[in-house]
Write a structure and sequence with these properties.
The chain is of the alpha+beta class and about 325 residues long. The protein folds into 2 domains: about 160 residues, Ribosomal Protein S5, domain 2, CATH 3.30.230; about 140 residues, 2-Layer Sandwich (Alpha-Beta Plaits). The strands form 3 sheets. Strands 1, 4, 5, 6, 7, 8, 9 and 14 form an 8-stranded mixed β-sheet that branches. It has a 4-stranded antiparallel β-sheet with strand order 11-12-10-13. α1 packs parallel to α2, α1 packs antiparallel against α3 and α6 packs antiparallel against α7. The chain is globular and about 65 Å long. It starts with 5 loop residues before the first strand and ends with a strand. About 50% of the residues are buried. The chain binds (3R)-3-hydroxy-3-methyl-5-(phosphonooxy)pentanoic acid. (3R)-3-hydroxy-3-methyl-5-(phosphonooxy)pentanoic acid binds next to α4 and α5.
Length: about 325
C-alpha cells in the first residue's frame, strides 16, 4: 500500500458523562467499566506525522517543545502497531488549541489524532473502528475521541461507537479551570492504586454499568434532567472509590468544591446545570445552550476559578490532508 510522507490529523477532546476508571486488562488496556462521553468542539489537537528515512529514531514535539521519556515511548508504541519493522521513523509534532498545562483531557484527543495521522502516513488502511481500537491501546478515553457527538466505550470492548450525533441533543459543556499546573497523578497510576487499595473499587465496578445504562438512556431520550443526575452520580462514585484508596487519591481542591456549590445553587434557582470531575481539580458543567451564558458567568465569579471554556459537541477525528 502507498504511504504519504507528511500527514496531519485533528481530533477533539471528550469529557466522560459516565466515567471510565479501572482496567479489566492492563496489558491490552481494556476498561473494567463502560463509559459514555461527549466530544468537544472547542478542545482540539492537531498532530502531524512526517516519515523520514534518514531518522534513526522517532522524534516528538509537543506544543513546540522537543519531548523525550514516557510521552515519546507512548507515541513510539502506537507507531509500532501500524508500521512494519523496517518502515521509516517519524517526526511527530502535536499541538493543542486549549491550555494543556491545565491537564485537560489532552491524551484522548492526542492519541486519536495520532492514530488517524499514523494510519495514513504508513498506509495501514485501518477503518474508524480499528482506529478507535488502536487509540484505546494508548489511552482508553482516546478510543472515544475518534467519534463526534455522544460516544460509548463498552466494558471490555475493543473500540468505541457513536450513540447519538451532537446536533440531535444540543448541549453546552462549560469547563471551569481551577489550576494552571499539570495534574499530579496520571490516570493509569491512579487507577492502579485505586484497584490495589480501595475497598470501594469493587462497588464502583459493580455499579458503574447501571449508571452507564442510565446515561445512555437519557442521551437517547434527550432528557437533560435525567442525564444530569446520572452524570453527577457517576463522577462522585468514581471519586468515592479514589477517596477510599490508601493513601487517598484526592483530585479535588477548595475551588473544585466551590464550583460544585455554584452549580447546586444554580439548580436551586431553577437552572438545569450538572457537574462532573475527572482526574484533576477542574469542574465540567453540562447545561442547555440557552442557559450557558448565565452558568458561565456564575462559574467565572466563583472563587478559585481561573477561567471558563465553553464548548458544544465536536466532530469525528479526521485527516487534514498533506501538511
Ligand atoms: O484514558 P485515560 O487513561 O486518560 O483515563 C481517563 C479517565 C477519566 O478521564 C477520569 C474518565 C474518563 O472516562 O475519561
Amino acid at each position: 500500500m502507498s504511504s504519504a510522507r507528511v500527514v496531519s490529523a485533528k481530533a477533539h477532546a471528550n469529557i466522560a458523562l459516565a466515567k471510565y476508571w479501572g482496567k479489566a486488562d492492563a496489558v491490552e488496556n481494556l476498561p473494567a467499566v463502560p463509559s459514555l462521553s461527549l466530544t468537544l468542539a472547542a478542545l482540539c489537537t492537531r498532530t502531524r506525522v512526517e516519515l523520514d528515512a534518514s531518522l534513526a529514531a522517532d522524534e516528538l514535539e509537543l506544543d513546540g517543545a522537543k519531548t523525550v521519556g514516557r510521552p515519546l515511548e507512548r507515541i513510539v508504541a502506537l507507531l509500532d502497531r501500524v508500521r512494519a519493522a523496517d518502515a521509516p521513523r517519524a517526526r511527530v509534532s502535536s499541538s493543542n488549541d486549549f491550555p494543556t498545562a491545565a491537564g485537560l483531557a489532552s491524551s484522548a484527543s492526542g492519541f486519536a489524532a495520532l492514530a488517524v495521522a499514523a494510519n495514513a502516513a504508513y498506509g495501514a488502511g485501518l477503518g474508524a473502528a480499528a482506529l478507535s481500537s488502536l487509540a484505546r491501546r494508548s489511552s482508553a478515553s482516546a478510543a472515544r475521541s475518534l467519534f463526534g457527538g455522544f460516544v460509548a466505550l463498552p466494558a471490555d470492548a475493543s473500540e468505541a461507537e457513536r450513540v447519538l450525533d451532537g446536533a440531535d441533543f444540543p448541549l453546552t459543556m462549560l469547563i471551569a479551570v481551577t489550576r494552571s499546573g499539570p495534574k499530579e497523578i496520571d490516570s493509569t497510576a491512579g487507577m492502579k492504586h485505586t484497584l490495589a487499595t480501595s475497598p470501594y473499587y469493587p462497588a464502583w465496578v459493580a455499579h458503574a454499568p447501571s449508571l452507564y445504562a442510565e446515561v445512555r438512556r437519557a442521551v437517547l431520550a434527550r432528557d437533560l434532567e435525567l442525564l444530569g443526575a446520572a452524570v453527577e452520580q457517576s463522577a462522585l462514585m468514581m471519586h468515592a472509590s479514589m477517596f477510599a484508596a490508601r493513601p487517598a487519591l484526592v483530585y479535588f481542591t477548595p475551588a473544585t468544591l466551590a464550583a460544585v456549590e455554584t452549580v447546586r445553587a444554580l439548580r436551586k434557582s431553577g437552572t438545569l446545570a450538572f457537574y462532573t470531575m475527572d482526574a484533576g481539580p477542574h469542574v465540567k458543567v453540562l447545561t442547555a445552550p440557552g442557559d450557558a451564558p448565565a452558568v458561565e458567568r456564575a462559574l467565572a465569579d466563583t472563587p478559585g476559578v481561573l477561567r471558563v471554556l465553553a464548548s458544544g459537541a465536536g466532530p469525528d477525528a479526521a485527516l487534514e490532508g498533506a501538511a
